[in-house]
């Protein structure tokens, strides 16, 4: 029996009728899926992943003695007027029984849409979204006859009881814990063959030199078996020749044969293995002679230098995190709550038991990557910015375009995986933490919103917020009573409005329950007093956005899903514009005009005021010029009158005034 981890305990303590903490996944299948095939897949899963056979007793994982697979499977048919979304909402609202392992599979036959849907429900204590996706990817990949037959040998089909499969066939991480966990490469291979057996087979087939071979035979065999390795021996003159002469013509073949023979003897247990030929480096002197270089010294120096650099970076990183952690912890604790908005429960309002679900139309993943490359960002940056823009547009439509009612910002909780970047093994657990991200809803320019969110994401990657939250939750879960913990959790999650989860999915087709998997999405459970949970999942070449909400706060979550697709079109237009390879000039002009039509009245007023100010400035300049000209003419007329009076001549004599003077009476002209 193993104790629960901090986030496992968090999910157990958070479980209530209003927050069942159940992850709901909908797997779309081609027609033809059967309950019999589903049962076989389920038995395979529980044979490998032991948490699916365990229940929680006194904060520990205990294997259920009376566990049976059929108790966790059922099959239903959806007929009008009942809809698939209503069925999914019902499953998202139900709690899983605690007297058995907390997971369940339902095969749904949708008559109206002519498709089959597999609804997989799992309590969050069993594993986070990423580990569950890895488990599903693993089961998608092993639907082949040989592997299924070998696994069925260890299953009592009549009783439904499960006998764990041989540990030599699939290294499973048991509750006792020291064995390796199942890897995709070792478990999926046909007939239970391991990677080491495949490597031994390759070594036996590729052994090209024996002790009885001559030097010439050794060179010939090496030229055939070497492939494209660096520095390999080849007899073809098109490669590795100088002036039409092979650089290996004067190579001492005895050395090559001796090296290969030593390698063969060492593999049989006769001594140490020399450096492989593919890793040796060669050079050619001025006379075209073959020279073998000893690269071990250079490699050792490079490795030593790299280790020193890594050690220095590690020390600096630790110092940076130690100095910054108290500041970030204080910032998280003193962070104010989100301003009141339409997606957040009011003060004192409790989350209802019933839930609503919806999903968007798929968006091409290549389009998202193009937008990300345009700003030197990631897919995660783009989908989060699209979410912010969709929430802004949804609120504006609800407020009839009145931006004064729009909150300046809202925060969302982003679950962060604490797993290694490249994980070879699969384990069902909760290795996650969370960070807070601010969505600037008052930002009117979609491109500026995207760059702002990208800066926040980059800054969060350098901050220790995820580790601080993980340590804080571990302390609170283990040392605070449950009632007080619920209050602290409610206060903690009141600092945000929505929960946003982004999980990368498969990149190739899969099969399950005897049918091809065509699409997949999931709904993240609500936690605390949160009323809206948003999920983003990528499958092969597209991305699906899904929403789960409390009907007392958001009765129709499909509106946000609809706005999500529109928001990405708007973001793609503003970032790529005419450079978008997916849009023709006519489409760009049409979308540009549509974007201008939805431009806010405030922006139009600012542009109009600037034009008016420029016009006023021009008019003032013209008026000043005319006034100066009139003043100069009046001055000249007074001077001429003074001169005429001194000489005794009449003032109205035009010839004396000169052609340039203007009479005083004509000043208004």
Automatic annotation (TrEMBL):
Residues 169-303, 644-669 are annotated as: Disordered. GO terms for molecular function: diacylglycerol O-acyltransferase activity; long-chain-alcohol O-fatty-acyltransferase activity. Pathway: Glycerolipid metabolism; triacylglycerol biosynthesis; Lipid metabolism. Keywords: Acyltransferase, Membrane, Transferase, Transmembrane, Transmembrane helix. InterPro entries: CAT-like_dom_sf (IPR023213), O-acyltransferase_WSD1-like (IPR045034), O-acyltransferase_WSD1_C (IPR009721), O-acyltransferase_WSD1_N (IPR004255). Residues 4-148 form the O-acyltransferase WSD1-like N-terminal domain. Residues 192-204 have a biased composition (Basic and acidic residues). GO terms for biological process: triglyceride biosynthetic process. One of its GO terms (cellular component) is plasma membrane. It holds the Pfam family WS_DGAT_cat. Residues 430-571 form the O-acyltransferase WSD1 C-terminal domain. It catalyses: a long chain fatty alcohol + a fatty acyl-CoA = a long-chain alcohol wax ester + CoA; an acyl-CoA + a 1,2-diacyl-sn-glycerol = a triacyl-sn-glycerol + CoA. The chain crosses the membrane at residues 311-334, 467-486. Residues 248-267 have a biased composition (Polar residues). In the N-terminal section; belongs to the long-chain O-acyltransferase family. This is Diacylglycerol O-acyltransferase. It comes from Triparma strigata.
